[in-house]
Design brief:
13 helices, kinase, VC0802-like, alpha/beta, Aspartate_kinase_CS, nucleotide-binding, 38% helix, Asp_kin_monofn, globular, binds magnesium ion, Carbamate kinase, eight-stranded mixed sheet, binds adenosine-5'-diphosphate, binds aspartic acid
Amino acid sequence: MKILKFGGTSVGSAERMKAVASLIHNGEPKIVVLSAMSGTTNALVQIAETLYQNNHSEAKALIQALHDKYKQVVEELYITNDKKKQANELLTQHFEYLTAFTLDLFTIHEERAVLAQGELLSTALFQLFLEEQSINSVLLPALSFMKIDENEEPDNAYIEKQLRKELEKYTGTELFITQGFICRNAFGEIDNLKRGGSDYSASLIGAAADASEIQIWTDIDGMHNNDPRIVKNTYPIAELSFDEAAELAYFGAKILHPSSVLPAKQKNIPVKLLNTMQPEAKGTTISAEAEGGRIKAVAAKDGITAIKIKSGRMLLAYGFLRSVFEVFERYKTPIDMITTSEVAVSLTIDSDKYLNEIISELKEFGQVEVDRDQTIICVVGDFISERSGSGLAIFESLQHIALRMISYGGSKNNISLLINTTDKVEALTKLNDGIFDRNSADA
Ligand code: ADP
Ligand code: ASP
Ligand code: MG
């Protein structure tokens, strides 16, 4: 069984949906995970914001505008009037459901239900299209198997058991269509795997179904060596190890959700990143067997806060670091980078939710300094077998940029550098020119 995930742009219009249908229909059984059509989740977020503000007339106008967009998709997607009628009835149900939220107080639970409508709509419309084309397919409701626990971690045992149960109901089926992104939480409520979470759905499903391969189909020909939204002349990387891909996803390569590599790695399932606009391109293969030996890529993660705790008296004392880490643990705030010196320890976090509480507890240990608007630049590759002075090339490229922290040796795959976000574009551009050997480029 293969898992194929198609992102927002890949199902972003009637034309794109038709292209996806022809890509997936080759007789082999597969689970197809779809995102919401591009722009939909953003529109639903905006609807939720206006509902929070009790701006019901604006919310109704936004819901109407989205409904109109979908009516147009229905016109273009189906041939028969019968299917158009069925699809329009489906739209009416979903948009009446959304409109009902304009009558009452809006809560976080309702926000999640609103956000789920995008994937529910794209999959239902796509399934109707496959039916019209007489393609053998079944719509699998993700809400009946995808679940997170009280720590917002996937409940793998439940997912596996429920998914198998659902699949067994329809033996002999070629295509199973399901929603990315959405899930139930520990209370059984509708929830989600955070923005970009359909990639994560695909790898959780792949792991649960013991898939032979997970394919992430998107709008670019694989993982590039640098952020193509910021830097010109980037190129796709043919092979990445699971660890390299995980570092890149975690440190800002938007093509993959930050958590999406781990489930595939745990089950040793290769992940392919492929381009729906250019299906013949070879894309990127992420596996345990990737070739090593060189710098592969750079990524950048914004929204980082650096915290420095200065305490000459206590730093070398046994148990000091543990006490510091316990503060972050109490507030469920993960630490990304850490460096220590004789008199201070610096670390970074990407969530400011409990920053005030964390700072006031840390003040018990010494003087605390906080720097916001920081960016982690993460250089990924094989730094153990790399013998060509890659460190030198990195530092030479960044010689005019203030480096706030440097982390090396945590894993063999990663050198991380903390800079001011205002220096990000320059840093990524300089690294692109300075550290990649274009002769060994994959493209
Ligand atoms: P989808 O909607 O298919 O999930 P995303 O927009 O989430 O697509 O991810 C694909 C986008 O990720 C690309 O269009 C590209 O702009 C962006 N991106 C950022 N960094 C990278 C990278 N290193 N390699 C490839 N794409 C990247
Ligand atoms: N539709 C969701 C989002 O836009 C999930 C995804 O596309 O992966 O974030
Ligand atoms: Mg995405």
